[in-house]
Specification:
By secondary structure, the chain is mainly α. 78% of the residues lie in helices and 0% in strands. The longest helix is centred in the last third of the chain and has 32 residues.
């Protein structure tokens, strides 16, 4: 699996969704993502759909750029999961600020 495939997987999307959104054939998108083919029109459309720079995605230093973008996406997902867990905790144990202050004081004693 290459870095672009990992990025697409982190974004929870697929080549089928990308091809439907940009109006190109599934196999064209899939081959570009895998690195088998290199048509500029498809590369540009895929990169723009994913919010990536087309030149950096397939140009020199693409591996470093994509690794950075994977790290950014992974951090974003981790933040979302942490916020979701926090919201679930507050919903389960009460979200009043009085409860939170009292619990914090009890833990720090």
């Amino acid at each position: 699996m290459n870095y672009l495939q990992r990025y697409i997987e982190l974004r929870k999307t697929s080549c089928q969704e990308i091809s439907n959104a940009v109006g190109l054939g599934y196999h064209s998108v899939q081959k570009v993502v895998k690195g088998v083919r290199r048509p500029l029109i498809v590369r540009k459309a895929v990169a723009e759909y994913l919010g990536l720079d087309p030149v950096k995605t397939w140009g020199r230093g693409a591996a470093m750029y994509l690794r950075h973008m994977i790290a950014v996406e992974a951090n974003r997902m981790a933040d979302e999961k942490a916020e979701q867990a926090r919201a679930e905790f507050l919903a389960k144990y009460g979200a009043s600020s009085n409860n939170l202050t009292a619990k914090r004081q009890a833990v720090n004693v």
